[in-house]
């Protein structure tokens, strides 16, 4: 079917745009020898895994279900990090993951030997105490009281035996100048232990496929770790794989007035794009402008009972009416993975648009998908 024939609400992932991003990432791998793996927490649409697997080295997970997904659906390198592992899950994690990264020395003491006996590579997450984010404290792993990583003062050299790599993740939608700043802090605080390591993982948050991203600086950071310490370098971006490669199509259900014009949509910020409220941010909407920029302004909101279920204020060249279709951009990342059915709100369908422009619905959801989550 064609794009305009898809049901609403519906996520649409553009295969050509995904591949465009993958080619950029693969170029970094080819020029530097670094390995890039998909962070499934941002994008875990398994329909796309065969394509992603053609270009990247594998997957990384935040827990057992993502680890199983990467193992079963991509079947390449499979990394995992969690703040703590459950005893009733660690055996399965060890059986399906190549790199197992621990968050603390107590976790290392508990599970390291078991992982090493299985032939797995063991890593330790470090906290370089270098905050480079502005206004995103909720996403800053270096903020005071953070749950993530071992600080320099807490390093226990006696327990580093068997640890072959260090991992840090400090970025969120950032450029490579912030990586360079962070890498300086990593060397300053942990440089004395780098020569005894085999690999280093730069974590995620690298917006490598963004138009203004400074790839030469990224590659210089990679080469620095390779040349200075002989380390194999890993990166685990999530957003960069599907950045600007997906849409959310929605329909206008009604126009309401309360001091301003309000359009009620068949989608929901709360249920279908929760990062709009968590970040917060204003998602791009094709053909629209800022409130007041075009002749007709509307507040766009969802169907749920939450007063704050508002996507944002937008303006249009023509008045909106019931049945109009709106297309939000950059909806492949941190959207499908975070959906929920609050208020019994149905989940959007999921479709793929191929390189010829043809669309195929690959998943639809109904009442049973809501009911099965409850007891």
TrEMBL record:
User: Is Lyase given among the entry's keywords?
Assistant: yes
Q: Where does substrate bind?
A: 239, 275
Question: Which EC main class describes this enzyme?
Answer: lyase
* Keywords, alphabetical: Decarboxylase, Lyase, Pyridoxal phosphate, Spermidine biosynthesis
Q: A GO molecular function for this record?
A: diaminopimelate decarboxylase activity
Q: Which residues form the Orn/DAP/Arg decarboxylase 2 C-terminal domain?
A: 10-331
Q: Which domain of life is it from?
A: Bacteria
Under Enzyme Commission nomenclature, its number is: 4.1.1.96
Please give the cofactor(s) recorded in the UniProt entry for this protein. pyridoxal 5'-phosphate
Question: Would you kindly state one Gene Ontology biological process term found in this protein's UniProt entry?
Answer: lysine biosynthetic process via diaminopimelate
NCBIfam families assigned: nspC
Instruction: Please identify the protein, giving its name as recorded.
Output: Carboxynorspermidine decarboxylase
| Species whose genome carries this gene | Peribacillus glennii
Taxonomy, top ranks, is: Bacteria, Bacillati, Bacillota, Bacilli, Bacillales
The gene behind this protein is nspC
